[in-house]
Amino acid sequence: RDNLAVWELAEMLVASETEIIKNLFFKGIAANITQTLDMETARLVAEDLGVEVEIPEKKSGAEKTEMLDNEDLENLQSRPPVVTIMGHVDHGKTSLLDSIRQTKVAEGEAGGITQHTGAYHVDVEHEGETKQVVFLDTPGHEAFTAMRARGAKVTDIAVLVVAADDGVQPQTQEAISHAKAAGVPIVVAINKIDKEGSNPDRVKQELTEHGLVPEEWGGETPMVGVSAITGENLDELLEMISLVAELEELSANPDRLARGTVIEANLDRARGPVATLLVQNGTLRLGDVIVAGPCFGKIRAMIDDRGQRVEAASPSFAVEILGLSEVPSAGDEFDVYADERQARAIAEERSEQMRTSRLQRAANSRRVTLSGVS
Ligand code: GTP
Ligand code: MG
């Protein structure tokens, strides 16, 4: 990536946006929070604020899998892409997901009932082969902001939904910045092409102004005109996602203890803590001992996105698990341990640390209040 929005820089530096805008002002740059800065300018601002900046090199295919160790490199196998759908309000994100799910997931399922697990996978026919694509069910922005703010990276590809009758809007721009900040390739779905007055070419033009140039105009961004209502071109969109995934050479090591990220979690009255885990490396198995954030557990049941009980989940798959002692937070990392005692100790230490820093924060905020009064 070669640029960064002001708000992103603020997020990274844990600084206020105003502080950054002020700094830019003294450099003779009038900026607002969505303004993009080149890396050199971002570096200068960061250094003024006392942060040293390292600009990372481009990652290779294997490095795109989070949580990969050196020993995994000898045992890599390709894994499905994990896709997040993003876009402006009402541009059709939910409809598109539903439509894909209906045509692809519900097919051949008992009763066609799809359990809500925060993620689901679909089969895509691509060049005579069946490939899988995993969609995160969480609204794109929340998935990105909540998780990225905590350093978790779960998405391999972003599908940016832009309504053909409405074009690029503020949250479209925000989504572009998010995906760029995360270094994630973008596939554009120009939605609602069935609608009277829709103008896909105008949308492409607008996207070009925001740095996304369609492939057919010599750029690098695949763009597919679709309709979530009629289902037109959904297969083409899925194929495009598979194609991008192939170029990314996504891989992981299925022959090790699982690691990954909590996608969502809640307390179920009957079942206790329930968490949806995205496996990012290794294979997760029934009976595994895990630590998720500060929570300990032994997996008592695993349920896939079709509501079926399963015994194992390989890289890029998401499953709902039962057996945690407490409810972790979305964005928490999880790890499987061979040694139950060690796992318990780690979980306890983490929750102790969290308790201490909570108390510390509470104490700090009280000090601020008192000095404000005096
Ligand atoms: P938020 O979750 O509120 O951000 O919206 P969203 O992006 O999920 O949009 P949603 O799927 O709720 O769709 C918004 C409206 O657009 C609904 O009334 C849909 O029926 C309509 N809509 C979505 N896709 C299409 C489409 O392809 N064609 C037409 N004609 N209408 C669509
Ligand atoms: Mg929606």
Description:
This protein is of the alpha+beta class. It has 9 helices and 18 strands. It has a 6-stranded mixed beta sheet with strand order 5-6-4-7-8-9, with helices on both faces. A hairpin with a 2-residue loop joins strand 14 (289-292) and strand 15. Helix 1 crosses helix 2. Guanosine-5'-triphosphate (GTP) binds at residues 87, 89-95, 191-192, 194-195, 227-229. Belongs to the TRAFAC class translation factor GTPase superfamily. Classic translation factor GTPase family. IF-2 subfamily. It is found in: Cytoplasm.
Dominant shape: globular
The proportion of residues in beta strands is 25-35%
Bound ligands: guanosine-5'-triphosphate, magnesium ion
Q: Biggest sheet, open or closed, and with what strands and sense?
A: 6 strands, mixed
Mean pLDDT rating: 85
Global Rg: 22 Å
Percent helix, as a range, is 25-40%
Give the number of helices: 9
The arrangement of helices and strands along the chain is EHHEHEEHEEHEHEHEHEEEEEEEEEH
Are there runs of 5+ residues with pLDDT below 50, and where?
A: 106-115
How many runs of DSSP E, i.e. beta strands? 18
